[in-house]
Amino acid sequence: MPKIGIPNGFFETCVICREMKLFYRFGLRDWRKNNHKKQSRCKVCRALKKQLPEMPGHYYYSFDPSELLGSVVTVTRPMSTGRIARYKIARKTAMAYIHGGVAGITGGNQMDLFYDERTFRSMVLKRDRYVCAYCGKHGSTMDHIIPRMQGGLSTFTNCVCACKTCNSSKG
User: pTM to 2 decimals?
Assistant: First the structure.
């Protein structure tokens, strides 16, 4: 007879919420890839993870730059095509993304960017109410205050709405 409190085949612990739940709350991985192994995250945490790009600040992410390890950070970014892009950036750039509110640390030397290019652009335009920051006319483009060629990043503090005339004449 099993002792109470000791996990057996009926219970598993979720790696995100750290709760012990019944085994059927986890589901199977894709049989083509992982040979029917159990998932390590419960169905609730997996559903929340899919919603995270729309709700930054979830408990899954850390926003303390001191938790970044190493000088190179691996970034995971959603793309407008639905795919995920992964690439490496310098620690200083990663810290700027975190301070800008567009990224969160997932652990070690890894972080996620919350928004793809289209979503970020539409959020900036909506924030500025489609009014050009330079002339006050109707704006339909996003402009980087510090250009990307000079080291400017796509953060909410560095991007503003601009009309096509002001955006092209700024250079």
Answer: 0.62
